[in-house]
Amino acid sequence: MKPLLEIESLRAGYGAINVLWDVSLTVEAGKTTVIVGPNGAGKTTLLRAVMGLIPVEGGDIRVDGASRRGAKTWDTVASGIVMIPEGRMIFPDMTVEDNLMMGAFPRGCRRDWKRNKEMVFEMFPRLVERRHQIAGTLSGGEAQMLAIGRGLMEQPRVCLIDEPSLGLAPVVVDEIFRILGRLRDQGMTIVLVEQNTSRALKIADQVYLMQSGKVVMSERGDRVDLDRLHALYFAHETAA
Ligand SMILES: Nc1ncnc2c1ncn2[C@@H]1O[C@H](COP(=O)(O)OP(=O)(O)OP(=O)(O)O)[C@@H](O)[C@H]1O
Q1: Cα–Cα dist 162/160, whole Å
Q2: Which domains does the chain have, with CATH numbers?
Q3: Which of 197, 151, 155, 157 is nearest to 177 (CA)?
Q4: How many CB atoms lie within 10 A of CB 48?
Q5: Which ipTM value was assigned to this complex?
Q6: Disulfide engineering: 113 pairs with which of 53, 99, 104, 158, CB 3.0-4.6 Å?
Q7: 48 Cα nearest atom in ligand 1
């Protein structure tokens, strides 16, 4: 069976600035793939390229074995790939419920929106109490829950989640990772970019370490040698 998502020899960046050099990785259906690496390694850029938010200059992105290189973001979302971006990017002037409704549009999930909303509310009871609250007034943790919930409204096949624990208090980080673990147990395919390496490794089926726009380590989650990971992680800073 073909992997759900394959990235092969990907090259991408921002205009004249190339960031990703020959990046290859594989995302298996129902698994959690964790991408770690120091600041500026190109993790977010990789997710953006997969979503069609920046052009691909070389290599390929395949879903179920079929190339999606050059696909527009809207079509990528419609194919079942969603990104829950760093910084949440919720609509601050809309209510919690309206933010969720926006999530149901791109994949044409409007018909199922009530059912999906109840599923999100069941997962995040805190959002129920705040359903009519303006999203811009939510706490950081609640905003992250809303961002994840909005992504789930698409009934995605793959969730790309960028730095969900960024700037959150430890108790809220616990809650976010509990939810990610639950999604994983339910069979969701997750690609998680996370600075909190120790937490992310606990839910990882496969781990990729990126460094300066390249994959420098790939290992099964239960076989990661932490000393080697840390040595490679900090190699760049040490050399600098
Ligand atoms: N819009 C942009 N225009 C030009 N360069 C950019 C842009 N966005 C990011 N970059 C550069 O691309 C490189 C990779 O950035 P990226 O955000 O992908 O790294 P990252 O691994 O996600 O880092 P972090 O963990 O800090 O979020 C960095 O050198 C960054 O300055």
Answers
A1: 7
A2: 1-80+160-239 (3.40.50.300), 88-155 (no CATH)
A3: 197
A4: 21
A5: 0.95
A6: 104
A7: 18
